[in-house]
Amino acid sequence: MAVILDYLWLEVELDDDPRLVSLLQNSSTSSLPVRERLRITVGKAPDGETVDIDGDSQPVSGTIQLSEIAYGAVHDRVARWARDEGWIRIHAGLADVDGRRVMIAGPSGVGKTTTIVALADQGATVLGDEAVLVRNGQAIALPRPLHAKHGGRGIEGLRPAAVLTTLAYDDPIAILDPAAINRIPQLEHRPAPLDLIVLLERSDGERPRVIPASTAEAIIALAPDAGPFTSDRVELVRTVIDLVESAPVVRLLMTTPAETARALRAIP
After folding, report:
1. What 3-state class would DSSP assign to 100?
2. Do residues 66 and 153 share a domain?
3. Among 16, 59, 176, 248, which residue's Cβ finds the most Cβ atoms within 10 Å?
4. Which domain does 25 fall in, by range?
5. CATH number at residue 113
6. b/e per residue, 112-141, with b = 16+ CB within 10 A?
7. First-to-last CA distance in the chain?
8. Domain count, the chain
């Protein structure tokens, strides 16, 4: 039985291979019109397995390679439609927190996912932990499952039902169902004005600290990982400048995920 997933402009049809479903299951719907349909299936071959992307079959060895090929196909198509519609991608998470849409950015491994899950535990709606599409002050998350490093060990109170699968990298990646993290049946993704931008930073302090960020600090933090939907870096930087001028930007020096989430919610 086929599984249909909504990835913004892309409708993805999967066969019922449980690995494939657990890798891409986003428990989401979107307000954006479907522009393209993509079918992904897993098949047998004399010397192993294959993954078929809209009729293009290639050999695959193990769940990690299956994940990289399948998600890569989805991401590339969403990226193309985002570019055509005038959006850029920011490496960040997105959550609706106490009535505000908040983008949470920071270097890889800083703790975006653990902070975002802690926000969900405190009543926020988590929309994504990896990529945010922005345009004209509006933001929408790329609706993939959440990816938690260290097999999710840094996430307090992580319920087994939220873990779809674990990818056995040297540093294992736990794939988390965003609807289960939010304790709702399904997420709805729609563009909305961005109200706050938070730049996460590691800290040795005993308590989280919130520091206003300058425009220059925000651009330095966001621009290097923005894109890759345009090769015009001047246009990209201009878009980032417009973004940071459309919403307040703060630096948040982190401690524990729960304390960091509470500090984020207290930002005026």
Report:
1. strand
2. no
3. 176
4. 3-84
5. 3.40.50
6. bbbbbbbbbbeebbbbbbbbbbbbeebbbb
7. 48
8. 2
